[in-house]
Amino acid sequence: MTDPALRGGPGTPHTPRPRPAPPSPPAPLGEGGAELAVEGVGFGYPGRPVLRGVDLRIAPGELVALVGLNGCGKSTLLRLAAGLLRPSAGRVLLGGDDLARLPRRAVARRVALLHQSAPAVPGMTVRQLVRQGRYAARGPLGMLREGDDAVCRRAMADVGVAGWADRPVDSLSGGERQRVRLAMALAQDTRVLLLDEPTTYLDLRHQLEVLRTVVRLRAERGLTVVMVLHDLAHAARFAERLVALREGRVAADGPPAEVVTPGLLADVLGVAGRVGRDPEGGWPVCYPDHPITLESDNHFH
Question: Spans of biased composition, class Pro residues (predicted)?
Answer without folding.
Answer: 13-28
